[in-house]
């Protein structure tokens, strides 16, 4: 029972990180209808930028952890957002409205570019960071002597994710930007005729997605204590899986999909075998899509004849 | 050859397609409500009704794109009968012999006009290519079958006057030509019933006249029954043998053009829709009367 | 306004634009290039590298300024990147170039100055040409987006390796088996998922590719896990092995033994396999099945109304594409003599897909050129190590921006009455799946 509870906590933490990345995929897919393959790498860049910001702040003598973390969060979001913006501007905007596979290939190219640019710039080694926020928030010893613990990092991750989720849902539901996004999603041409700056809206979508991915990067760094140039691929694929699982285009779907993938992965590793955790996640994706072709919360696609 | 469904009802010889109590629901919306009518051999049957009446939905049920919520659709090919609701969409064309066109033209735009007509002869050509294996190995049987298919396509291209454009991409054709090509493509599947969804929509008067001639020749020369959705009353009155009127998913009238024209329910249905159409119907009725 | 004033305004605008680009580069580069994380005895620390940042900013600023003043000058004619006439000439050229290229490929090992390295490179390029041609069936003709193609390549490679290891079967017996097994897996995956549309199919095939790789990685007792399988038998020349002894290939034909013999044999083997693939794909396009694939890519609903069984048609495309990957996989295994899951990562699928799309979907010639440019170019710049991958990614982006429909973007009709006219790519649909 304690073991189960512990896995549940770990799964939710991991799921939060996937969910944050998945939102970027889902928003971009919703608005431009493309798989932003480079998004996983934007997440990786976010992790690096968070690490660099943290190291720079410590070097400058900012040692109060909450202050430093808040600053890192802001800095990482800002700089990663710039990356997101640039990727869209260079690799996707020139291809808008063109052949559907072109942006996909260009995205794959961008992903290779980012991965290797970071590798060359920062070196191929894994970057370890000693625990920034040590200690447990909650701890209880069960009957069998097994300890259930919620670490402070886990609390930070889940809380930050929740806050950001709520904030972004409000942003999309209530603000003019959100309205513009939804309008572009429905009908880009009509939206532009009605005076919505489509380019700007799409750019901002990429910026938002990248900012959230950088938060996920920071969380990843805090949780695992390492980043390297290769984390983007696996995390990206799983986050995209999460987005599809939840129903692509739906923000709550992305979060639920993220949580599901996190939980499946954690429980599978805990009860079956860690080696096959990704196999489990991918198999469930395939099964869900076969039986619910538009994901859990996605709108079913009506075939118009 | 495939056998029909043994438990299909036996229809009178002259009835080709019988639609019985056809109902189609989309969630709460009843798009088609207990509609029954017959399509008879050698006739042009028109299916008319205001926009949203459920005409296209009836077509989609007949051609297998939708599974009817309730209803029985029987096709009588003489020696064998089929229950259409049990066939999958591609079997309806191949086994039951029902071909169709679409309200918004669905040609293979990036393929040539000729290629469009060859794709329509997929089933016999596939058989001739020995399910591809013999074709890859260049067995002579396939070349012969392909020549025959090209001849058939040429015949149709001559009939619709597009023989000179055979090697052009279908998307490059003007709208009216695309409509006729779509009909020719459907005819290349060797159907017994041809279902046309608003074939005259967007045509100019001369194209419309050509279309009427084409449909008449399909009825007369090919002996293919036509089921036609049409808004243009002049076309309907001129060429159809039998008219079925739908309104809000219900069948409100079924009979000869003369009968339908006089039916107060039909007039009311159009009166209740929008002014433009009403005026058009009234004008048409006057014209016929005088 | 005088011309000079207008020129001045244009220059100011160009300058401003370049300045903005430089600033953005500064934002991108300052943390990533300027502050390098290094592990020191006392933990992770930052090393400043400001000159790199300055160089990056300068390159972008100057480059952008020059571009703004030259090809991006305001008022330049609207960019029709490649004119239709040129396009038509290119596709004519392709018709002439293709036989020449095949002749060149046949002669390559015996051309003066061709060393072992060139033949090896030729083998590599041809492997990707074959994979590209195989995937072209699925993506180019049938319009199904497959992001897990490498899984079938892996199935082929492991089939051969395992069959050879456990049953002592030779390469020639395994080659068809590997193809059949790969096709079988293609059907197995395809059957449930081919009703999915668009990007869902893409993600499912990607997931499938990863599943296969992870199983190969973790199923130690069968696949050897990350260590892979070694000692895979090399192919024989119809029973004659390439070895130094008296019953070897060289001795039988009275030649002095040379290690190059096997390489040249492998080269011709893959050339033959690739040409067979090409022949079959070209044939298939002209058969009803091939036309049905293209029709499916254009409009699936219309296909169903014409009596085409779309599920079977897609499945055939998937299975045939997988089969050619299986052949290529068993060739790969026999060539390397060693395989491990590392050779079958997603990047490979992406690379093959990129070759197909960059080449121009559906065009056999374009695919071959793309494979040559991508793989050959990539190998030629071996010394540049990691930098070449950066350039590789950038080139993918640039080619797509330059020619979104690939190098050969026209479609050539499969049959004609009077005259065969190339169909402009803009009319051709790209498929739902
Ligand atoms: N796939 C579908 N899902 C939901 N509603 C549909 C669907 N197809 C048709 N309808 C609805 O059914 C009604 C009849 O439509 P339709 O058959 O296209 O009318 P018509 O062809 O007579 O103009 C309309 O209200 C339409 O919105
Ligand atoms: Mg309609």
Automatic annotation (TrEMBL), chain A:
Q: Please provide the Gene Ontology terms (biological process) for this protein.
A: D-alanine transmembrane transport; L-alanine transport; L-isoleucine import across plasma membrane
Main location as per UniProt: membrane
Q: Where in the cell is it found?
A: Cell membrane
This entry carries the following GO cellular component terms, namely:
plasma membrane
Q: What residue intervals traverse the membrane?
A: 12-35, 42-62, 68-87, 146-172, 280-298
Give the highest taxon in the source lineage: Bacteria
- State the Gene Ontology terms under molecular function: L-isoleucine transmembrane transporter activity; L-leucine transmembrane transporter activity; L-phenylalanine transmembrane transporter activity; L-valine transmembrane transporter activity
Topology in membrane: Multi-pass membrane protein
List the Pfam families hit by this protein, alphabetically: BPD_transp_2
Q: Which UniProt keywords apply?
A: Amino-acid transport, Cell inner membrane, Cell membrane, Membrane, Transmembrane, Transmembrane helix, Transport
Parts forming coiled coils: none
Protein family membership: Belongs to the binding-protein-dependent transport system permease family. LivHM subfamily.
Annotated PANTHER family: BRANCHED-CHAIN AMINO ACID TRANSPORT SYSTEM PERMEASE PROTEIN LIVH, HIGH-AFFINITY BRANCHED-CHAIN AMINO ACID TRANSPORT SYSTEM PERMEASE PROTEIN LIVH
Q: What is this protein called?
A: Branched-chain amino acid ABC transporter permease LivH
Tell me what organism the protein belongs to: Hansschlegelia quercus
From TrEMBL, chain C:
Iron in keyword set: no
Q: Which Pfam families match?
A: BPD_transp_2, DUF3382
List the record's Gene Ontology CC terms alphabetically.
plasma membrane
Predominant location category: membrane
* Localization (cell): Cell membrane
The GO terms describing molecular function are: branched-chain amino acid transmembrane transporter activity
Q: How does it sit in the membrane?
A: Multi-pass membrane protein
High-affinity branched-chain amino acid transport system permease LivHM N-terminal domain ranges (all copies):
14-107
Q: Which InterPro entries does the protein's record reference?
A: ABC_transp_permease (IPR001851), LivHM_N (IPR021807), LivM-like (IPR043428)
Alphabetical keyword list? Cell membrane, Membrane, Transmembrane, Transmembrane helix
**Transmembrane annotation, as ranges:** 20-38, 50-72, 93-111, 117-137, 144-163, 169-188, 200-221, 263-282, 315-338, 350-375, 387-404
Superkingdom as given in the UniProt entry: Bacteria
**What is the protein name for this chain?**
High-affinity branched-chain amino acid ABC transporter permease LivM
- Please give the organism: Hansschlegelia quercus
